[in-house]
Structures are given as structure tokens and as C-alpha cells.
Amino acid sequence: MVDDGVADDRTGQPRADVRLAAEAWESLFRAQVALMRRFQADDVWGDLSIQEYDVLFTLARAPEGTLRPRDLGEGSLLTQPSLSRLVDRLEAAGLVTRAPVAGDRRGRAVRLTDAGRAAQREIGRRHVRSIDHLVGGALDADELTTLRRLCDKLRAAQPHLVDPVAAPGRAGT
């Protein structure tokens, strides 16, 4: 057992896993950064940025392709000011619309248009091929299953971070 000076909340005894947890996080984080750099460099995004695609993808996963801006922000990796400008660009391109929320006079929602859904699907197909090459090419089927299970377990252990558009069984496209 390694004594890192951190006690287990339940027993008061030193935790044996502190260093291993930190090393596992570092490995996961660095793998994610390396993959995101490769994905960003891919020639699959067309006229959109990876961030714009992320918004289209998040909306495509939402019920009726519609989310309030705060929910869209929680489901994507963008700050609110960046998200507002990005939605402005997507709206100008005809990929999303803003509309009132039924029953809420002040509420507004962002909705995926048919053109936005088509763009998301087209880019998504190319992106999935890239994912298959970079992730599926590095891991076998059992490893991919284990990776998914472990990542799902990590997300589930963060109950205060609600995923407003979580859809079990949906592919990450």
C-alpha cells in the first residue's frame, strides 16, 4: 500500500489508489488531447469548425433537435459567450433557428433545421470513419468495450454533471 497522505473518507485509513488514480487520469486526458488534435486536423468538417459540428451533434441527439441555450452549453464544450456567437453563425448559415419555448414567454430554444441535420449526418459519417481509424485501429473489440464501460462508469460517478441530451445506445457521431 502506498501512503500518499490522503485518507479514505469512510475508514480514515490511507488510500492506496491516489497515485494510480492520478496516473490513470493523466493517461486518459493525454489520449483525449492527442485524439482531439488529430480530429481537428482531419479534413472532414467541410465549411464548419469542429465546435460548430459539436453543436449540431448535440442538437441532433436532443428530443426534436431542440435545446435551450443553457442546456446546449451543458451538452457541448463551449462557454456561453462563445456558444452565442457560434449559434449566430449557424443560424446565418441556415443550420439552426432560434424560436420561443412553448409556455415560456421569455424562453428561447435553438432548433436544428433540416439542412443542419443533413450537414450533421454527412460530417458525422466522415467523422465516424476517422474515429474508426484512430480509435478502432488502436484497440480491439474487447478493449473498445472495456473503454466504453469504464468511461460510462466515470461519467455516471459525476451525478452533479447532468448530460441534458444523454441517449443510451447512441453512437458518438
Automatic annotation (TrEMBL):
UniProt cross-references to Gene3D superfamilies, sorted A to Z: Winged helix-like DNA-binding domain superfamily/Winged helix DNA-binding domain (1.10.10.10)
Domain HTH marR-type: 21-156
InterPro entries the record matches: HTH_MarR-typ, MarR/SlyA-like, Tscrpt_reg_MarR-type_CS, WH-like_DNA-bd_sf, WH_DNA-bd_sf
Source organism per UniProt: Cellulomonas oligotrophica
MF (Gene Ontology): DNA binding; DNA-binding transcription factor activity
Any one GO BP annotation for this protein: response to stress
Keyword Magnesium: no
Keyword GTP-binding: no
Domain of life: Bacteria
Name under which the protein is recorded: MarR family transcriptional regulator
Keywords: DNA-binding, Transcription, Transcription regulation
